[in-house]
TrEMBL record:
Stored PANTHER family: ATP-DEPENDENT RNA HELICASE DEAD BOX FAMILY, ATP-DEPENDENT RNA HELICASE RHLE-RELATED
Pfam families: DEAD, Helicase_C
DEAD-box RNA helicase Q domain mapped to chain residues: 1-29
Stretches with biased composition (Basic and acidic residues): 437-454, 463-475, 484-501, 508-520
Protein name, as recorded: DEAD/DEAH box helicase
Keyword Kinase: no
CDD domains recorded: DEADc (cd00268), SF2_C_DEAD (cd18787)
Native source species: Massilia cellulosiltytica
Gene3D superfamilies, alphabetized: P-loop containing nucleotide triphosphate hydrolases (3.40.50.300)
GO MF annotation: an example: ATP binding
Domain Helicase C-terminal stretches: 257-402
Stated family: Belongs to the DEAD box helicase family.
């Protein structure tokens, strides 16, 4: 199918071809016609499948077919006229027609850049990014232009909404890109507030790795009779990406192996993922000392520094990018051939997003995870989520001293408890099916003695105390306290003697069962 067959405006098709697009991706083939028809969309598709064009192209088509707005004064001209009249210049709230919410600044800038390519032959359409890390005066200048398309992160957008700088009364299209990630980052309240400020007549398109759980609940609240499109789930197989696991003994072993992997002649550019911002800076510095063109990317960097780092990556000046999960969201550099998980992600979903930085748009890629033996269970979680086994690889000269644990023959989706009886919390759950008492096995001799049966041999065989236990009527035996008793004692003469249980005895009913150690 061609872009012309999707029914897009001629100016958009021309711009798409100039941007290097040859034919629509599967998600674009399904989403674009439905969006042009005005349907709400719930789309689940893998990273790098062309989601940005899937929601932006039909939206631009709608604006291209709209009647041009009546010519009027620009905001600068209105401000100049107000000053000439001696009036105070008042800021007029921006009234965008389309809002795109993204979880990170990098993804917002990526969407804005792509939109500028798609609108190369549409002069009346302006798209701006409103996000954290950008100076407020700069953002005020962008909003003063009253852009048709606003791409923003939820936090900064809320700030402008509360200050009256943005008015959504004219909004026609709302897009939530990577909605699952925004919810993971705690933006649920901000999203609810933003959606509540938009007209109910809007068209809503939600793109997410998964459409179940919290995402599904929110999607049902903000959409009306949506068309569900599932190209690939977040647990897709990434067949164009070669995945490997390398076990390491310690930090020194990990660093030496990383150095070796980054010297691979087949590698063009790579992204190394770390768990902390501090590690990102430290590893980037060490790689630079070792002769690599490396740079760090994390959330503590100013937006200008992050933009310069990504620009250097796209121009090929940076060969190795050391990044954290949040900062790397939205990175779209086709020349990234390798992804290295220096630290495994906390959640399996993040693993899928990480390796999605390579193998973009159908290209081949390689994803390598450096794993300590104690992290084997995390690898199993990723395998269960992706429903595929990640093979273990060993580089000659960098073999781990400790061999990896043998991989079980169970399917990748196996969970503890498979093939067992009972439910979690029951004793039978901890025993594989078939174990326990078997009818043909010999029982313990004697079994359990019934109440009326005589005592069998095998009990306490030591010498019994002569006389057994003294009855109330029997005289006190020797061996007790032989001294003179204290007159009166502690008990008054008139108070009756009270029966006291022996040390360690606990009163219980006559028909209560004897407790055992396992009953505690």
């Amino acid at each position: 199918m061609s872009f012309e067959a999707l029914g897009l405006h001629a100016s958009i098709v021309k711009a798409v071809f100039q941007a290097g697009y040859e034919k629509p991706t599967p998600v674009q083939e399904q989403a674009v016609p439905a969006a042009i028809a005005g349907r709400d969309l719930l789309v689940s598709s893998q990273t790098g499948s062309g989601k940005t064009a899937a929601f932006m192209l039909p939206s631009l088509h709608k604006f291209a077919d709209a009647e041009p707005a009546a010519a009027g004064r620009t905001p600068a001209q209105e401000a100049q006229a107000a000053r000439a009249r001696g009036e105070r210049v008042r800021f007029k709230a921006a009234q965008p027609k389309m809002l795109v919410l993204t979880p990170t600044r990098e993804l917002a800038l990526q969407v804005t850049t792509a939109t500028e390519q798609y609108t190369a032959h549409m002069r009346r359409i302006r798209a701006v990014s409103i996000l954290g890390g950008m100076p407020y005066p700069k953002q005020m200048q962008l909003l003063a232009k009253n852009p048709e398309i606003l791409v923003a992160t939820p936090g900064r957008l809320i700030d402008h909404m509360e200050s009256g700088k943005i008015d959504f009364s004219q909004l026609e299209i709302l897009v939530l890109d990577e909605a699952d990630r925004m919810l993971d980052m705690g933006f649920i309240d901000d999203i609810e507030k933003i959606v509540a400020a938009t007209p109910e007549t809007r068209q809503t398109m939600l793109f997410s790795a998964t459409l179940d759980g919290v995402v599904g609940n929110m999607a049902r609240r903000i959409t009306k009779n949506p068309q569900v499109i599932q190209i690939m789930s977040a647990a897709n197989r990434h067949e164009n990406i070669t995945q490997k696991v390398h076990f390491v003994d310690d930090l020194s072993h990990k660093n030496r192996l990383l150095d070796h992997l980054l010297r691979d002649e087949t590698m063009d550019q790579a992204v190394v993922f770390t768990a902390t911002k501090r590690d990102a800076d430290m590893i980037a510095d060490r790689l630079n000392i070792a002769g690599f063109a490396a740079a760090a990317l994390h959330g503590d960097m100013h937006q200008g520094a992050r933009n310069r780092t990504l620009d250097s990556m796209r121009r090929g000046q940076v060969r190795v990018l050391v990044a954290t999960d949040v900062a790397a969201r939205g990175i779209d550099v086709p020349s990234i051939t390798h992804v290295v998980n220096y630290d495994l992600p906390k959640f399996p979903e993040d693993y899928v997003h990480r390796i999605g930085r390579t193998g973009r748009a159908g290209r081949n890629g390689t994803a390598v995870s450096l794993v300590n033996h104690a992290e084997s269970m995390n690898v199993r979680r990723i395998e269960r989520f992706t429903k595929q086994t990640i093979p273990v690889d060993v580089v000659e000269g960098f073999e781990p001293k400790r061999s990896a644990a043998p991989r079980s023959g169970a399917r990748p989706g196996w969970k503890p408890g498979d093939g067992r009886n009972g439910k979690p919390g029951q004793r039978s759950f901890h025993k594989p099916a078939g174990e326990g008492y078997r009818g043909d096995a010999p029982r313990r001799e004697g079994g359990y003695r019934s109440e009326g049966a005589p005592r069998t041999e095998g009990g306490y065989q030591g010498q019994r105390r002569e006389g057994g236990y003294r009855t109330e009527s029997a005289p006190r035996s020797e061996g007790g306290y032989q001294g003179q008793r204290r007159e009166g004692g502690f008990r008054s003469e008139s108070a009756p003697r009270r029966e006291r249980p022996a040390f360690g005895a606990h009163p219980r009913s006559a028909d209560s069962a004897r407790r055992t150690f396992g009953d505690r």
